[in-house]
Amino acid sequence: MALYKSLTVNEKTKVLIWKIEESFNDLNKNVLLTENNQIRLDGMKSELHQRGFLSVRHLLKEAGYSDTDLIYDEFGKPHLKDGKFISITHSFTFSGLIISDDLHVGIDIEKQRDKILKIAHKFTPIEEYRTIANADALISKLTIVWGAKESLYKIYGKKKLLFLHHIHIEDFKFEDEKTSGEIRYEGKAASYNIQFLEFEGFTCVYAY
Known about the structure:
The protein is α+β, with helices and mostly antiparallel strands.
């Protein structure tokens, strides 16, 4: 069991990524869950989800926390009891979290899949990407845009935002590995930094 990646965003913000290679039993060792989270774990029908859930608890340990330090609000957004900001993600065989002392943060990991081409019109003006001739590059770009919007959605933390209308991502070049985004809602606009990386057919995007 080991971390897959540890990234320092700044001196008060870090990203941790776990590659989920362990069995459920191995991940379940030495993890003490709150009663509510044990019920959540027991209720998960997919072992993949269970392993993702447990791997996040190992990431918390890496960051110096335990499951009992984590609380969820009425919208399902996670918070740390010490007041630091946290966001959590898992997708198939990877999980991740971002923790910051003083910045609102969001993170998303997505598997790069063809299916994003079919749903792209629901979350971004697809005509912006017509110039990308290479299908793999288009899937890669759209996955970054989706992850960026998901990260900002998690920062906002309530259920009313629409990806297509309320969350806007600046165009970017792959080699920059960063962009910016805005949440525009109810006459207000808030801007965020966005960074992204790709590994093993997955995309990780985080915002702060």
